[in-house]
Design brief:
- Helix content is 29%, strand content 34%.
- The chain has helices at 20-26, 30-33, 44-62, 107-116, 137-145, and strands at residues 3-6, 10-13, 66-71, 76-86, 91-98, 127-133, 149-156, 159-167.
- The protein has an eight-stranded mixed β-sheet with strand order 1-2-3-4-5-6-8-7, sandwiched between helices.
- Strand 7 (149-156) and strand 8 form a beta hairpin.
- The two termini are 29 Å apart.
Length: 168
């Protein structure tokens, strides 16, 4: 397991297959799914496949990833944060997702700021994209605290999505 960054309260590290139960449970949280457009995983095997084929493969292919966020005080998986390379647009997206009981504690901002401090991973890019479903003011605030600036809105799968950029 590779540690990526440590903040005052958090550790961001690469996901492993040991994270499948937590990764699955995060997508079971109805409050979380309101803002993601995702559906619940069918079962833990489906969660494992996403973790392997999307999350862990990003580490291997691009040296980027959605990293497990571990709270130091109790060594608990509380969500994920990090980068995803989008092949179709050749962009890098900063994303984060936390269990709803962890919202409002500053973890998303702390993890996102930690991720953005790793600018050496983002060589050759002009900007990083942040995507937020319209109405998710807390997530928009996280991006703004990290230096992202609103650019435009799009409609995707019948959802209004606000696009932010962090200029490198």
């Amino acid at each position: 397991m590779k540690f990526i960054i440590e903040t005052s309260r958090l550790i961001l590290r690469e996901h492993t297959l040991d994270d499948v139960p937590d990764f699955f449970n995060l997508n079971e949280d109805e409050k979380v799914l309101i803002y993601t457009g995702d559906k619940k995983f069918k079962d833990k095997e489906a969660a494992k496949n996403v973790l392997l084929n999307i999350v862990i493969s990003q580490h291997q292919l691009y040296n980027l990833g959605r990293w497990a966020v571990i709270r130091k005080s109790d060594v608990r998986y509380i969500g994920w944060c990090g980068f995803k390379y989008i092949v179709e647009t050749k962009e890098v997206n900063l994303g984060y997702r936390f269990f709803s009981e962890e919202w409002g504690k500053g973890y998303a901002t702390e993890a996102a700021q930690g991720a953005m401090s790793l600018k050496q991973l983002l060589n050759d890019l002009k900007y990083v994209v942040g995507r937020v479903q319209e109405g998710n003011e807390a997530s928009s605030a996280v991006l703004r605290k990290c230096g992202f600036v609103f650019q435009y809105s799009i409609v995707e799968n019948k959802r209004n999505i606000d696009i932010y950029h962090y200029i490198l």
